[in-house]
Amino acid sequence: LFNHESPRRWMEFVTRKISHAVAQIKLGKINELRLGNLDAKRDWGFAGDYVDAMWRMLQRETPEDYVICTGETHSVREFCELAFSHVGLNWEDHVVIDETFMRPAEVDLLVGDAKKAADELGWVPKTSFAELVRMMVDADLDLLEGRLRGLA
Asked: pTM of this prediction?
């Protein structure tokens, strides 16, 4: 499984760090988000879609190895742009590059190929990158405002 993201992701992961900080900034709780390499690119997909892929694997008569991913890459910067714009803010007004978050052995690009899963399982991800970002920000807004929402 490539990076499988959702509102339930732990805060230690950059996607959740961003979505939670965006919600906090929108609500006036903090003013900035400190990040490392904004140019790192990842293949981020929705965990719920990946669970569907796993269920499909379990329906097979014989086990096989599959790569589960979106086949798309998006940068940390792109994630920030979408997350902040979703709440009507400019990411450049709030994101601060902090050298302490730079990884010494950063892998600049991670992307997968799920062709076998599509061909043999009929699986393709349903949730777009933009939908994933909005889902995560909305869930963190709900969390911080004390609203409960069913997580897809």
From this structure: 0.92
